[in-house]
Design brief:
The protein is an all-alpha fold and about 400 residues long. The protein has a single domain (about 5-180, about 190-385), classed as Up-down Bundle (Growth Hormone, Chain: A), CATH 1.20.1250.20. The protein is built from 22 helices and no strands. The protein has helices spanning about 5-25, 25-35, 40-55, 55-65, 70-90, 95-105, 110-120, 125-140, 140-145, 145-155, 160-180, 195-200, 200-205, 205-210, 215-235, 235-260, 260-265, 270-290, 295-305, 310-320, 325-355, 360-385. α1 packs antiparallel against α6 (about 95-105), α4 packs antiparallel against α21 and α7 packs antiparallel against α8 (about 125-140). It is globular, with a radius of gyration of 20 Å. The two termini are about 20 Å apart.
Amino acid sequence: MLRPDLLLLCFGYVLSQFFRAFLAVLSPVLSEDLGTTPEDLAFASGIWFLVFAAMQIPVGEALDRIGPRRTAAALLLIGGGGGALLFAFAQSPTHVTLAMALIGVGCSPVLMASYYIFARSFPAAQFATLAALMLGVGTTGNLIASYPMALAAETIGWRGSLVGLAILSSLTAIGLGIIIRDPPKVDHAQKGSVLDLLRMPALWLIFPMMLVNYFPAAGIRGAWIGPYLQDVFEMDTTGIGKASLVMGIAMIVGTLIYGPMDRVFGTRKWVVFIGNTAGATACVLLAMFGQSSAALSIALMAAIGFFCASFPLILAHGRSFFPEHLMGRGVTLMNLFGIGGVGLMQVTSGPVFASLADTGRADAYSTLFLAFGLIVFVALALYFFSREQKN
């Protein structure tokens, strides 16, 4: 993991985590400067996730055909650098949405390039641990998108902050193009497609869990924590930033703890099942009791962040069924479900919230959080019947 190319990919993933989470912290200033609403920001955040998810098919194809070096460097330069610069000069909510779409393109290959290298260059038994380590360290971007981003917005302004991020993204992309070491080509790598993976019955009971496991944590942290705390408890940008920091830390700790659990307990499936049951329960408790106390709400959000951090372990569960020549397409297909689920939730949650808000915004948030939990419980009922393959 100490290879320079993997370390720089990890930093690229820090940027990716930052970009998926920073909108919630900027909700007050973007509302004041651009007239954005919580629904606008949820939609823009959802577009990031949907574009990111849609890119997983071509990214997987590119990883198998041309390797991670050119794939990651080109997309991060064009999308990450260009999208952040577009955001810096935004004049309306529409510009914010377009910028987030472009940033989604830029961030789409970074984690999967790392996972492709892990899958091709390291023993299969180490995949979940390495994947969790990359995800956990990279999730520090989530922390930077909390209080530090709020502080930067108040000192140099959100536009200046985005210009700096555009420069940083571009330099990272150039570095990736120079130092990434592509794994050796697999024989007959051109044969096969993602359709071969979709024909595997074992994956179809894993896909629903992958689709919904991450969206309570990513949705609340990326879009709803800011508006919720502002509307229900009248928190300012600094207070929202601190609460986001707490939830972000919980997400990192949860990811790092999940990573080696398959080797500790000898199972991926049941670690995922028990952990997500706890996460779904925390969503229901937040819906029922969160309005009684800001501290309780933040604690339950932290619990959601912790227990819904099983993404790398579910991906490792699916990876155990992938043939070598489809490894790139396999990990990106799983990521399509994981990130696509967040995108669908974000895009639909805004209109749902707006339709519910007429009867009271606080109650609308409770209904939203309750729906998050119930959807995860449905996926768990399907995942219960999935099978494991030891490797």
